[in-house]
Amino acid sequence: MFSDRATVQVEAGRGGDGSMAFRREKYVPRGGPAGGDGGSGGDVVLVASESLRDLTALRFNPHVRAPAGRAGEGSSKTGANGPDLEVPVPVGTQVFTEDGTLVCDLAHPGARVVITRGGRGGAGNIRFATATRQAPRMAGVGEDGEARTLELRLKLIADAALLGFPNVGKSSLLRRISNATPKVADYPFTTIEPVLGIVESPDGHQLTVVDVPGLLEGASEGVGLGHEFLAHLERARLLLHVVSLELDLDAARNGFSVIFGELAAHGHGLAERQRLVILNKLDLLAPDDRGTYLDAFAAAIADSRLAADEGVVRDDGGRPVVLGVSCATGEGIDRLVAALHRYAPAREAHNDPDDGLADYLVYRPGIGGSDRFRLLRAEGGYRITGIDDVAVGLDPDDPADAAALNAALDERGVLAALRRAGAATGDEVRIGEAVLIYGAEDRR
Q1: Residue 30: inside a domain, yes or no?
Q2: pTM of the model
Q3: Domain count, the chain
């Protein structure tokens, strides 16, 4: 099953806790603090891989978590950083937040982006030593890594894309011109997911062609999953508009215009994309009628009576390129392959990774919590710094104030951080001058 969308929960690694230790060596009486810092948690990195074709792996394994950093140790030993977790995704993957904001667009092979950053490691007690506090009995707790829910959407990148109504022979045509083997049958919507094929010229030059399921009138409004199918045309450099010769000239021209209207309504530059017109099922016409039909269709395009005519590729003489083919007999296939290699725009050169330019199109880094705090492990409990204002004016012994304080700590993520740090019922939690007792009501 082809999967072009996946929703994933991504969490970077938690930082390791700092160590609270003291020197215990022979001939070193009253040794000072020697607790090392915790290591940073690992980042989650998305990497565009040419070996993947869809998002099936992430669709069925949507929870991604990077390793945590190691805790610090005595003798001032810093814990190891958690290794980064690289997650391969297909080239052409776009990443969106839950509200639909584009985070990054991995449009080139090897493009990579840090999607969530690991938490910092906690400070060891050696960091808290001062001239007046020479034996600090506190250490930092590692910070949580960034956590985000993201939607991945794949837009296939191809040199050309086949489009047209259902059952006009797009899959048969792809079989004829490429190495792809899509299902072919005599009923509409035989193709239910995009199929990629490689078209090779006699000199060995290769192009990728994608066949998307047939479009219906109203596809730009979502009819027949039109949004999903049209999205795969956005990255094609050339559109191959397939029209069936089962229809008379007027009906074929009308259908040609309808499909163009859906491209224009969808937007994203599809209406301006160059198109080759392919009249399929040439074998249904009598040999004497084939040239007449092709000439009439080309002449109608040359007259530019329809908006759909403007983007049709012209040859060196200014004549619209209208190709007749028969997938049943193979007639016209060689001419089509030659035209495809001639008119497909050259691929844009990929940025040199050493040129200082990013190899992703857009990147908006995740925003960490606005109410940042530090959680320290101390004797008898914990100390929280950075949010002293949250407890100002509140009496923890008053039920109403206690409920308000509990809600404020929960909203800022303090309670969750305490739970992850292993806080137990009865532990003291100091916030500024306030001393709170971590109780059963907090362990939700």
Answers
A1: yes
A2: 0.65
A3: 3
